[in-house]
Amino acid sequence: MLTERQLFILRVLIDDYIKHVEPVGSRTISKREDITYSPATIRNELADLEDLGFLEKTHTSSGRIPSEKGYRFYVDHLLPSLSMKEREIGHSELLFTEKVQEAEALFDQSAKILSDLTNYTSVVLGPNALDMKLKHMQIIPISSQVAVAIFVTNTGHVENRQIVLPDTIEPSELEKLVNILNERLAGVRLIELNTRIQKELSAVFKKHLKDYQNMGVFLDQLLLWSKKEKLFYGGKTNMLSQPEFRDLDKVRPLLDFLETRDLMEKLVSSSEKGLTIRIGTENEHEAMKNCSVINASYTMHGKHLGTISLIGPTRMEYQKVISLLDSLSKEMTNRLNDFSN
Amino acid sequence: MLTERQLFILRVLIDDYIKHVEPVGSRTISKREDITYSPATIRNELADLEDLGFLEKTHTSSGRIPSEKGYRFYVDHLLPSLSMKEREIGHSELLFTEKVQEAEALFDQSAKILSDLTNYTSVVLGPNALDMKLKHMQIIPISSQVAVAIFVTNTGHVENRQIVLPDTIEPSELEKLVNILNERLAGVRLIELNTRIQKELSAVFKKHLKDYQNMGVFLDQLLLWSKKEKLFYGGKTNMLSQPEFRDLDKVRPLLDFLETRDLMEKLVSSSEKGLTIRIGTENEHEAMKNCSVINASYTMHGKHLGTISLIGPTRMEYQKVISLLDSLSKEMTNRLNDFSN
DNA sequence: ATTTAGCACTCGCTCTTTAAGAGTGCTAAC
DNA sequence: GTTAGCACTCTTAAAGAGCGAGTGCTAAAT
């Protein structure tokens, strides 16, 4: 268990390091007005904190920098109360240029705003369209063999794909099929269409469709969902201006990471509501070992839809960033719910 | 006018510089087997070529590097015949993983292949969907006030947007409107829909639609095209491994440029068929002053659809890249035309 | 009239040395 | 328990030496 003084010193040190991005020595800390101990005393405390794993040295006679454990402790126990939150909230409303009409524009702008305000990189993970409910579907033939299948969701999202029409299928049959699907499956989440069809509609098909046999492959093709959630970026290159990434060999993996969809999706996904912070190796990827990721989820009618995330160096300004992310995700939630009125 | 020998030396020098990315001195050139002159002679020629503006020095006693004018001359007059082209062509067919079904996947893969093969950055500018012809349109109400408008083109592309339904409009009227549009405007390019309606359909509307007056704003909203051509990237971060961009302050503007849609679109657009090369400042942007851009257009039924482009340092391997780009754009053209069979 | 050998000279790089500065850990005194 | 003092470590920046690549010019050779 840490003493009051240790807690205090740890917090002061991390605050200072976050601000100046340079190892902090005992003298620097002792210079603060609210500190009554001498540098020597502080040195002793620092040595203890280092032994406990909260601090590190860059070399034998350097000042201290926070370790990953230090940051974790700082984030969990030492963050100043989010009292300044109020001030920021007023802000974020103003930041959206004019009124944002479509959800995509909202996501895009949110990411941009966040990265502009923080100078870090931000990502918004869009809602998974496949979780939306089918409003209407349609198949529009393009040529004798190719058609476009279109699915409109209750949220106004449109999924579409090209499909190959089997030779055997007749236009009238196709129409019947579409009618059945629309009648029976409206309101079903896209992702569930497949199972619902198999469970409930084979009888109906058998009754109304002539060559039901050949339909199987066609239906599979029609309902083979592949698209992933969309990602909206802000400040992709901001990492380049962070002092700890001044080195090309260190930024490269990071930028490559940002460009790799799968990794980003995994990084930024979080089923949890609210706010999660992952520090350094907690992100479980080499390229992210010097970064922290903060995910905040936005919702619609209380349901988790997606996340807005910030990626920055481990010594990011947690306090500022957290309150920002918190208010921004709430603002997104508000606006999204406004859309649906 | 340059002498034979000057031409020869200029070409050898640029070839060497492109290969080794280091200033080339007289000794290096004289060491080549097919050179019979002494370093001193070459020094004289080099001085002349420098006076003529084809070469530069990095400092008073360094070897020479090509100037922008030098590269331009090299590209225009000195490029070895594209005899190796044949060899590459066989290649590019094989490089596509399995069969590519949709156009988007083709563009994406082409960009990836190109950047993998060159280690530079590549961009494919997708076709402008607004140049495609309307196959079918539809308006699907989501709520009492919001609807989704969907336009399917003859190429199977789907454009969609959300629109606000005026209170005054009745469902039956909406249906009529859509029917009229589909009957009268099938085969018209999306971009032209607006003018066609204004020119030819006002009479029809007046006849069939009740509140034709209020329709104006609604139609404007419906046909307000904003989407731009899509961009597909490959090797976005490849520039980081180019020796001339080892410096962070030099890459930063470049990467920022790559992320700026407007600039990229302008950079990569070219109405010309075939292949265009822009070197350094010819790209008319500070961030691109040390880069060359090569655009190759791909077509469908002989019509220019879009471009596949390569962005690399001015000392890129023009020969290799040009032949690659040439065959790749042709391959894209082939495959696109196959789709439409 | 070219071409070439020779040579002095210029830069850029790398390596070493030096000195200054920041910071630590330890000891002994307060 | 706290602190002053001090030896020691490590980093950084600056200065200087030496090397190598390359040039430009001159004078001789072809």
TrEMBL record, chains A, B:
Keywords of the record: Repressor, Stress response, Transcription, Transcription regulation
Residue ranges occupied by any Heat-inducible transcription repressor HrcA C-terminal domain in the UniProt entry: 104-322
Superkingdom: Bacteria
Listed InterPro entries: GAF-like_dom_sf (IPR029016), HrcA (IPR002571), HrcA_C (IPR021153), WH-like_DNA-bd_sf (IPR036388), WH_DNA-bd_sf (IPR036390), WHTH_transcript_rep_HrcA_IDD (IPR023120)
Pfam family, one: HrcA
Cited Gene3D superfamilies: 3.30.450.40, Heat-inducible transcription repressor hrca homolog, domain 3 (3.30.390.60), Winged helix-like DNA-binding domain superfamily/Winged helix DNA-binding domain (1.10.10.10)
Entry's family note: Belongs to the HrcA family.
NCBIfam families linked to this entry: hrcA
Function summary: Negative regulator of class I heat shock genes (grpE-dnaK-dnaJ and groELS operons). Prevents heat-shock induction of these operons.
Name of the protein in question: Heat-inducible transcription repressor HrcA
Species, as recorded: Fictibacillus norfolkensis
